[in-house]
Amino acid sequence: MQHPIPCLFMRGGTSRGPFFKADDLPADTAVRDRILLEVVGSPDPRQIDGLGGAHPLTSKAGIVSRSAKPGIDLEFLFAQLQPTSDKVDTTPNCGNMLAAVVPFALETGLIAAQGSSTTARVLTLNTGMACDVTVDTPHGYPEYEGTARIDGVPGTASPVRINFLDTAGSVCSSLLPTSRVRDRVEMGEGQVLEVTCIDNGMPMVLVHAQALGRSGDEAVDELNRDAELKAVLEALRLRCGELMGLGDVTAKNYPKMCLVSRPRAGGAISTRCFIPHMCHNAIGVLAAVTVATACVLAGSVAHEVAQESEGKVKSISIEHPSGEFNVELEIDPGDPQIVRRAALLRTARLIMRGEVMVRTRDFDNWRKR
Ligand code: NQM
């Protein structure tokens, strides 16, 4: 016996996955997680029996509901799954999947279109972060076609504009969880690595590519095959996790690791992000916001290699393996460590609508109640 669950399969930015209305899934998190694992087909490296795409960027799910909280329209819970693990992580945010939330809510009647464009305030339940998301709705439903282009996605699409309002210290206690803009980490055998541990929407550890004997413009496949680099990054990640107050991060998807180096293509900085064990084909949304923030923080390892950007509102282009990601940061004039607003552009698309079938027996018990 299989059970149908209403589901829209959506691309959000450079990620994709199934989206559900919260009411269509059990509230019990253990049961919900078993269902999500079955939906994407984890654990299995090929995810052959589910909707996952055999990569962390395509092993994600979104759960959306209307909000009863004052000033908030929608609540979004992001779930990170992994091809080879049976864990479902709802701790960190995902700004890419976030881009599909307002189109999903319009498609499923959770909110109504407001005119030629629709803005909704979305609260991410993962970290309690609020943002305003605007999509084009010229015909009363989400427009998917358009001329906006984001690197990492072929072609063009209608823009999804995201304005983050309060990103500092999303999972960590503050923007700079070690209270320093730069830390020196002993790696054994006399090796010391200088890092910036920072969380402006995503806990991250930034390190110069050169300090690890890499150039920082290697191809993703090359980095994914680089077992020696991955071993050093993981050892560094575990140490930094403790320093950042995150405890033992062995089984956690954060902090993400990012190799930074001088820009090559006219941007502010060049990046290679590990999420945390595979190299990202591009860069995560909140990872980009976090790296951009580090670029403007004097003393950080990113600032040292970044191209300076003038003005109170800074437009910072983060180079990544498949292009660049532009983040607009509004810095508090009185305190350079306070980012008032981070704005950026994504695109999203409804790929499929229907019902996803699960066998989970728990689901049967939940439906009978
Ligand atoms: O940083 C990948 C992605 C992400 C997360 C990851 C993200 C973000 O590209 O906001 O979007 O860091 O695992 O989807």
UniProtKB/TrEMBL annotation:
SUPFAM superfamilies: Diaminopimelate epimerase-like. One of its GO terms (molecular function) is isomerase activity. Coiled coil: none annotated. It holds the Pfam family PrpF. Keywords: Isomerase. Belongs to the PrpF family. This is PrpF protein. It comes from Pandoraea thiooxydans. The lineage of its organism: Bacteria, Pseudomonadati, Pseudomonadota, Betaproteobacteria, Burkholderiales.
